Amino acid sequence: MRSEHRSKNRGVRPAPSFNCSHCRALIAGEAPGTRHRNHCPTCLWSRHVDNSPGDRAADCGSSMEPLAISVRGDGEWLLIHRCTGCKELHLNRTAGDDNVLLLMRLAVKPLAQPPFPLELLQI
To answer: Cα dihedral angle (27, 33, 37, 39), rounded to 10 degrees?
Structure first.
């Protein structure tokens, strides 16, 4: 898959649409807020197609599960994906059409399901 296609007569064209490998939703090739559509805005799953953002050079091709949210110093949210095939982790920028409820569920998951018993906290 390529994020953009070059044509001598037309310049740069947006990437073609594709079906999500997880939920099967039809996804537009363009994403608001990012140059490289790399995940489904409906279920937030991705596909391991990049080694570097937009290069589409990865050989794996497996589905990538959304695990968590990371926040950059400037406040931008990133999705952390883990490949179900090779277990590699990737950071992917969120897009303007991402499912806000699922983004929030990922963001609060560490608070809702802490990795230790809450009884260990002494107040």
So the answer is: -70
CA distance 70 to 83: 17
pLDDT at res. 34: 73
What is the pLDDT confidence band of residue 54, given thresholds at 50, 70 and 90? confident
Q: For 103, phi and psi rounded to 5 degrees?
A: -60, -45
* Contact between residue 67 and residue 78 where contact means Cβ atoms under 8 Å apart: no
Handedness of CA 52, 54, 58, 63 (dihedral sign): positive
Average pLDDT over every residue of 10-14: 54
User: Letter for the amino acid at 102?
Assistant: L
CA distances (Å), 85 to each of 55, 89, 123, in order?
19, 11, 42
CA 74 to chain centre: 19
